Design the sequence.
């Protein structure tokens, strides 16, 4: 379970491409990564905390791709799967569950527990902030390239 955002910059992508594909992808990756950093921090502050495993498992994953002239970047933020944890059985306690599984139960609820959303509210409350971080980070990278040329 994670919040994913896919950024496709129609128009801006071509301008970034003029700077060179590597610089364009690096700038977009850095900008999307900055948004991911903000979401990790915000989610860690909003998640219900028992032992802290869920809070500590919240990570970001950034990826970029290029198809033709189109550059896209994605950031996924949410609890990471812990490969070291044992598979939780029916009698497993909360502390034995994967943070990603427990995070989904908290977010959406279950038969025995009502939902306690913590991811979607963060996304909804910070959407404007995310766009601003993205724009500011791209602007910084573009300004740096212009100054160096």
Sequence:
């Amino acid at each position: 379970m994670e919040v994913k955002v896919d950024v496709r910059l129609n128009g801006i992508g071509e301008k970034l491409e003029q700077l060179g594909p590597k610089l364009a992808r690096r700038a977009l990756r850095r900008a999307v990564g900055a948004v991911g950093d903000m979401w990790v921090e915000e989610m860690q502050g909003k998640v219900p905390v028992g032992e802290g495993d869920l809070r500590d498992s919240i990570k970001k994953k950034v990826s970029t791709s290029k198809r033709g002239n189109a550059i896209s970047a994605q950031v996924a933020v949410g609890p990471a799967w812990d490969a070291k944890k044992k598979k939780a059985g029916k009698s497993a306690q909360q502390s034995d569950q994967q943070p990603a599984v427990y995070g989904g139960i908290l977010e959406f609820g279950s038969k025995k527990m009502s939902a306690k959303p913590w991811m979607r509210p963060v996304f909804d409350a910070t959407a404007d902030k995310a766009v601003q971080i993205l724009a500011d980070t791209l602007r910084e990278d573009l300004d740096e390239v212009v100054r160096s040329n």
